[in-house]
Amino acid sequence: MTNITWPEGLPQVIILDGLEASRKNAVIRTEMDAGPAKARRRYTVATKIFTGSIVVSENQRRILESWYDTVLGGGVRRFIMKDPQTLEYAEFRFREDYDEDSLDGNWRISMELEKMNA
To answer: What SS3 class is residue 87?
Structure first.
């Protein structure tokens, strides 16, 4: 597990309405000529995908941008934060770059995260 943590001073990720969570399919099914399909696990640990957003000030947006670019290497590295559903600490990584939208002097940061130990 990594020792990189979600930045202090930023709200925990995905605290607004509109949180979505989905599990990545970890099963491969093979149809047979007769009888039921065979099924097996594709890998030992499936990931869970969280999509949502946070609202931050301009200063917090700069902190996030700097952390994302320098500490995470542009979103490549994993980090520890609270799971938005269980509130227990878990390992996550960004699935793609986050989006920024101006919002009455603040910023809405939308992101898609992958929980690594779902």
So the answer is: coil
First CA to last CA across the chain, in angstroms?
A: 14
For the cut 80, the answer to whether the pLDDT of residue 114 exceeds it is yes
On whether the CB atoms of residues 72 and 4 are closer than 8 A, the answer is: yes
CA distance linking residue 25 with residue 35, whole number of Å: 23
Asked if residue 61 has pLDDT above 80, the reply is yes
| CA nearest to 97, candidates 73, 116, 63 | 73
If you average pLDDT over each of 38-47, 65-74, 107-116, which comes out highest?
65-74
User: Does an H or E element contain 18, and which?
Assistant: none
Classify 8 as helix, strand or coil: coil
4 and 77 in contact (C-beta within 8 Å)? yes
